[in-house]
Amino acid sequence: MTAPWTLQQINAVAPDPSSLTAARGVASAWLETGHDTTALWGLCRGRGTTPYRTAIHPSAPAYTCTCPSRKLPCKHALSLLVRWSEGAVPTGQAPDFVTGWLAARAASTAPPAPADEPVKAPDPATAQRRAERVAAGLDDLDRWLTDRIRHGLGAVDHGYDTYEAIAARMVDAQAPGVASALRALAAVVNDETDWPARLLEEYARLHLMAVAYRQRDELPRPLLRSLQTHLGFGTRSEEVRAEPAVRDRWQVLAVRVTEESRMFTRKTWLRGRSSGRWAILLDFAHGTARFAAPLPFPGSLVDADLHFYPGAAPLRAVLGRQHGETEPFTTLAATGLDAALDEYARMRGADPWLRTWPVLLDAVTPTDSEDGWYVVDPSGRALPLAGDDDSRWRLHAVAGGRPVTVCGDWDGTALAPVSLFTGGQVMTW
Amino acid sequence: MSTLPESLTTAALLGTARSAPEFGALHTAGAAGELAGDPAATLLAAAALEATFLTAATVPVVRERPSPAPDDDRPVLPGAAAERLRALLAVRSPLLDEWFEVAARFRASHDIVVDLLIVATTDSVHRDRLIALTGARGRWVAARHPEWADLLPPDPLDDTPWHVGPPARRRRWFEVLRAHDPAAATATLAASWGAQTAAQRAELVALLAVGLGPHDEDLLERALDDRSRKVRAVALDLLPRLHDSAFARRMAERVRQWLLVDGSTVTLAVPERPDESALRDGLSDGPARDLLVAAVAAAPLSVWREHAGDGVLPEFDVDDAIRTALTDAWGRAAVRQRDSGWAAALLRRDGTVDTSVARVVPRDILLAHLRETSPPAVLDDALLAALPAPWPRDVAEKVLTALYTKLTTTRVVRDVLTLLAHRAPFELADLLADAANRTDDLGRLHLFASAADTLTLRKTIHEELS
Question: Pfam families from the xrefs (chain B) (predicted)?
Fold first, then answer.
């Protein structure tokens, strides 16, 4: 059985802060509790005559309770976890309701038997038709871009409608990645003082896509896959899972959930403990922030296979077979500024359309210098710090002018922090 | 990253139809020179090359590291207690005072420091205690943030806020200086007396209540001559608290003249119209009895020593009206002069006193009185209000028993239950819940039950902070 969870882990699985408060309220209501190598269980006195029966499978994690609460985990499960973390749950023989539940769970969550027939390859004719539509669309885009450069960016219209029109054309051409890049450009002109340079850079990036796609038959295959991803081609999950497994002890460095028009995206930053390789997991949920896959919390480590999305600078991955329990890690091998910048340059060289790459900087001190925010390494060398004021002040307060380990995304200009490690503690925002 | 050079952006802004781009100065000039074809496409390709080079070639700049925050040796506030604080702050709970008191030995964990500072900017009531909770780290962060720097207590030795600050900041600095060096604060205020508006003078003189002493006498006498009635009123409130002042001697003299004592007989000799000096000392026109009460309440209690015989209180043969008036005035004098002997004597003689007087009675005497008093009489909300937490269990139980055996007004039940909920030992929660179950009156059931809840919540608060 894994070590008892820390309060931080319990916090991470609580559906809302009030659940934890409610959990403290039932702390004295436990009649009997126990745990064995797999599960935790307990009987908790409720309002009725029969006590609630609560069981937890921490390594999944999975919870069950006979109480009527619709929250998962309910306050009883949370309270049981808290007792366990305090060392107040003795070992024992699992009662029937626990073993029965575990057996039922094992049956329902067993991986489906591998299909006999090989995964159906996509129809080559369909793929060919799509490639031609995209190519035609990109040719139009390139004409549009060069026309505007010929007339001069100072002379052409930069209204939302203008960019929306060409973006719509890209949607028709089945290049949604290009469409969303174009939609962001009107705001660049509106909001940024240095817009000519930024706009030219974005135009150049799109031009490079058009040029590269024209030569798609000569591109190395990984680079073509990267280009297709940037253009907005989806990658079928069977294809990703068919990629060779990369096994490592993956350290979970940060998790961030964002929402856009009721679509919740959970982004998880992983770094291989032995390889130092980065991986990003993305999960999506519609309507609520309840994700199907259980959440590995920052500060934990999982020995698992990852399958990377194919590309010239592979980063996005899916979790494959797990070889061991999730466990907390206490040490973290981060890099200096140079190694991080070198890695970014290498990745940007492999995939010229890449915007950001994760970094994990060792012993840097956040500081509010007169000309803005920086992280400074022990020798006084600094990189600009991005992000909103609120999160930068939080970073500053937690570091307190002392060196900390910062995880974030580097975009060639500034570091957008996502988590911070100091003295065995992890902080994310 | 440095942004794309002007040679490229200018050409793009003007348009390649009118200006030919120049690639010679680019980092990637070699590769850009190879480009050929349509000038617009060439410009875009050169921009792509240069932008990729620039983003990938960023090197660190040199910046100074900040001075680290000092250490705070206090243990970290437990997570449950931090959650509790959040909940109490959200509803501005009356239990916050107690929470902060019990939590004083902890410091907030660093990750909630910013949250607490944000609350402190809008919650002036708990500001100083929130800042204290954030500790060394909170002060370190706040000092660096332009909007949070004002949260910190100003340096009493730096009088810049006094000379240039807005009124609130001047007031804050003055308060800090008063706590740090009372006499210096008096001198500072005296020096700029004429430059203050009447409202400011009144407000600042009122702050002298903390650290009041002989060094304030001259300024307060000066305030008695102030044009503003408000300023004079504040001075008249503070002066009687000074022992052995000219004001006290004037009042003592008046009392001797206005109340002629011969053995146990007393004759009132209050003048028809108070003289100039009496008017200045706040004794304005009015019925003789009011003037007498005002003078007695402002005179030093030592005036009565010669009439007291063996005890503290003098015994006079007077009608009830005068007796009540004297009792009232002595009570006020005992409060102003913090005279516990007089306060205790009044309690002993009358069996009860006002809350303000009872607060001056030493705790052990007040407790002994409550223990000895007959069970129904223990529901004296004036005395109970003056007994600070924690109440001994026997007194709390006596009060609770009296509450549910004696018929009394709902107001008293409510007031006394509120006191019990905030001051009784936690074990009383069960008895309160029992009382709630036993009563037939729905209104009282609710009062008992919510007192039990408050007591249980307080118990949880103390456990979370243990």
Answer: DUF5691
